[in-house]
Amino acid sequence: MFLSPQTDNQRFKTWLSQQPTICAIASSKIHYDFKVVWHPFFLNPSAPTEGVPKKEFYRSKFGSRADQMHSRMTEVFKNVGLEYNMSGLTGNSMDSHRLIHFAGQQDLGKQHDLVEELFIGYFTQGKYIGDRQFLVESANKVGVGGAAEFLQNPDNGRKEVHEEIKKYSANISGVPFYTINGKYQLSGGQPPEAFLRAFSAAAADST
User: Fold this and answer.
1) What is the DSSP string of 10-32?
2) Mean pLDDT in residue range 50-59
3) Where are the transmembrane segments (predicted)?
4) Is the pTM of this model over 0.90?
């Protein structure tokens, strides 16, 4: 195991719209010590709050490509010991972004743990990212206090989410998207080796 110089200054930012990036981050954590900051991104800002079945949504959006995407995702998850689950709903993710922002105000470690819980629930357990109960349970599990009360007011965090999107996501066309120390950028699904190369370059900058 090795750590880069000035590892406490490593700052890893990732933009999400509930995409699976945790495994790549975890693999980098083995070699480097860094802080992870999550920022919001809406793939479909007009998605319904009540949610729609995932399978129906992906078929209507991607047509015949939906089956290929499902096969690819199944293989990706299988390679890290997880079972990709296409059951459940997909829809508006504003509440999850509000909660993630709220968690980050308490502690970035808790924010990252919360995102991991949301990913696992959404992608492997058929949980709906817009389900208030699921969000609160996930927050409680990782020690984010006051989640239920915070989400009860639909205005809490909404302004901050939109401000973050305007500030950080204006020039981003898709997710996942990552930036390391404000300089090195990665987009789309990337293997762990790509992250290690980027962190190695960032570490060299600080020597």
Assistant:
1) -EEEEEESS---HHHHHHHHTT-
2) 92
3) none
4) no
